[in-house]
Amino acid sequence: MIRFSNVSTDSDQPIAPARLYEGHWRHRLHPYGDELLCRVVFDIAEPRVVAAQVIEHSLPEDLGMTALEDLTTRLVESEVHRQPAAWGLAPCDTMPTWATPTFSESQIDELQRLEGYLIEASEETIDDILELRDEFLRAIGMTPHDACKALREAKNAHGPRKNGRYLVS
């Protein structure tokens, strides 16, 4: 992972701020299937696909976790994170409105740590902790709305993510 600075509240678990790029990519969802047009949000700091939709018959549909991991592998193998503009991706400061974001394990750990701070917060400190959470979300290119959108998607999923963890416990 490329380390630009640490946006984590735990200095022993550094998290790089997001460097998001969005664009289109042709991807084969099945070994013998045709390549389909996908719109993607790619974090070159991680590097990983944060959100993606396949566009088939002019209808967009979010990719599942396995497909996102496969797409991430394909983009990393192609070294898209080294020169995203050369691959047709454009920088973006925040998640596009169409995107349902996903979080990396380290980002989930940080959100859970912040959730613990919120649980134990007093009336005097809760605003500071909420601001800390919002700063973290902005640093990874997301808003509280994006986090809620991802949480709703995780709860509506048919099962746990491939590694067995949801967005929050």
Structure, briefly:
The protein is an alpha+beta fold. The chain is 33% helix and 20% strand. It is elongated.
Task: Describe the model.
By secondary structure, the protein is α+β, with helices and mostly antiparallel strands. Helices cover 33% and strands 20% of the residues. The protein is built from four helices and five strands. It has helices spanning 65-77, 105-119, 126-139, 144-156, and strands spanning 20-28, 35-43, 48-56, 59-62, 90-91. The protein starts with 19 loop residues before the first strand and ends in a 13-residue tail after the last helix. The model is unreliable at 159-169 (pLDDT under 50).
Topology, element by element:
Layout: E1 20-28, E2 35-43, E3 48-56, E4 59-62, H1 65-77, E5 90-91, H2 105-119, H3 126-139, H4 144-156
Antiparallel strand pairs: 1-2, 1-5, 2-3, 3-4
Supply the key terms.
169 residues; alpha+beta; 5-stranded antiparallel beta sheet; 5 strands; elongated
What is the strand tally?
5
Query: Structural class given helices, strands, pairing?
Result: alpha+beta
Largest beta sheet: what is the strand line-up? 4-3-2-1-5
Task: Outline the biggest β-sheet.
Answer: 5 strands, antiparallel
Termini Cα gap: 26 Å
Number of helices: 4
| Strand residues, percent | 15-25%
